[in-house]
Design goal:
This protein is α/β, with parallel strands linked by helices. Helices cover about 50% and strands about 15% of the residues. The structure holds NADP nicotinamide-adenine-dinucleotide phosphate (NAP).
Length: about 260
C-alpha cells in the first residue's frame, strides 16, 4: 500500500526534500503537510498532486504512516506536546542535535524513530543523507535521495553532523579563488565557470577513486616544484589544514546541539 508521509514543519529543509521526492519518477506515496508556513504549504499542495495541506498537526499525525519532524530544535517541545502518536507509526526526524533516544518520550508510544540529516543539495537529489538507525520504511521512502549513509549507532550522529559543518568553509574557499581571479583581470562569470568546473572535476575524480587511494590524490595532483605543490605547501605551513581539524574538534567537543541557541544545521 502507498505510504502516507506527514510533515510537521514545512520550512526550508522539508520543502527541499518534498521537491526532490515529488520530482522522482518512481515516487509512490502521499504527503500530508502541517498548516504552518501557510504560503509554503499551500504552494506545495497546489504544485504537487501528491501533497495535501491539513488543518492541524494532529490531523497530520493521524493520517501518516511516517511522521517527519522538521521544525527547529527550539520549536520541538511545543510542537510535539499534546500530540497523540500511534505505536506502529514511524518517526523520521530532521531535527539537529536530537538523536532518537532524546525524542522517544515526545513521540511515545511510537517506537521506530530515525534521525535523518539531509544537506541542502538534497533538493536536487544529491549529497549524503544520513539515516540512523536503518529503518526499512524510512529507507523505502527516502532511500533514493542522494547517497544514503546508514548507521545504527546514534552516538555517531554527532560526528556526521560536525562533518557537514564544513559546507560554508568549502564555499568560502571556492569564492576566494573566484575573487582572486577577478582581482587579476578575469571577468567574474568566466572565473566562476572555470572554478566551478574545476571543483566538479575534482569531485568526480574523488568519487571514482577507491577509498584506500584517496590519500594519494594530493600528491597525484601536483608535480615536484610545480604550482599545486607550492600552494599546498604554503597552506600547510600557514596551518590551514591543522586549523580545519582543530575547528572540527572544537565543534565536536563544545557545540551544544540540543539547546534553544543551537545551530540548526
Ligand atoms: N536547513 C537545513 O539545511 C537543514 C539540514 C538538516 C537538518 N535541518 C533541521 O531541520 C529542521 C528544520 O530546519 P529548517 O531550516 O527547515 O527550519 P525552518 O525553515 O525554520 O522551518 C521550520 C518549520 O517548522 C514550522 N513550525 C514551527 N513551530 C511549529 C509547530 N508548533 N507546529 C508545526 N510546525 C511548526 C515552521 O512554521 P512557521 O514558518 O509558521 O514558523 C516552519 O515551517 C531543524 O531542526 C534543523 O535542525 C535543517
Amino acid at each position: 500500500m502507498m505510504p502516507i508521509i506527514g510533515f510537521l514543519g514545512v520550512g526550508t529543509v522539508s520543502t527541499a526534500v518534498i521537491h526532490a521526492l515529488c520530482a522522482a519518477d518512481d515516487f509512490e506515496a502521499r504527503i500530508v503537510l502541517s498548516p504552518r508556513s501557510t504560503h509554503r504549504s499551500e504552494e506545495l499542495a497546489v504544485r504537487y498532486g501528491q501533497c495535501t495541506r491539513l488543518g492541524s498537526n494532529q490531523e497530520v499525525v493521524d493520517a501518516a504512516d511516517i511522521v517527519v519532524l522538521a521544525m527547529r530544535p527550539q520549536q520541538m517541545d511545543e510542537a510535539l506536546s499534546g500530540l497523540s502518536f500511534r505505536k506502529e507509526q514511524v518517526i523520521a526526524s530532521f531535527i539537529a542535535g536530537s538523536p532518537p533516544s532524546t525524542i522517544a518520550e515526545l513521540v511515545s508510544p511510537a517506537k521506530k524513530i530515525a534521525q535523518l540529516i539531509p544537506l541542502p543539495a538534497i533538493e536536487y537529489g544529491r549529497g549524503p543523507l544520513l539515516i540512523c538507525p536503518e529503518i526499512p520504511e524510512v529507507i523505502n521512502v527516502f532511500g533514493s535521495l542522494g547517497d544514503v549513509i546508514t548507521s545504527d549507532d546514534e552516538t555517531q550522529i554527532r560526528v556526521f553532523s560536525v562533518a557537514s559543518a564544513f559546507m560554508s568553509t568549502y564555499y568560502e574557499m571556492q569564492n576566494t579563488v573566484i575573487e582572486w581571479m577577478t582581482s587579476r583581470g578575469i571577468d567574474e562569470s568566466t572565473a566562476a565557470r572555470y572554478v566551478l568546473s574545476e571543483l566538479e572535476g575534482l569531485a568526480t575524480v574523488g568519487r571514482v577513486t577507491p577509498v584506500d587511494r584517496l590519500a594519494d590524490l594530493p600528491a597525484e595532483h601536483q608535480t615536484k616544484g610545480g604550482l599545486n605543490e607550492r600552494v599546498r605547501d604554503h597552506m600547510i605551513s600557514a596551518g590551514a589544514f591543522a586549523a580545519l581539524r582543530a575547528a572540527l574538534d572544537d565543534v565536536y567537543d563544545n557545540a551544544r546541539l540540543r539547546s534553544p541557541e543551537a545551530e540548526a544545521e
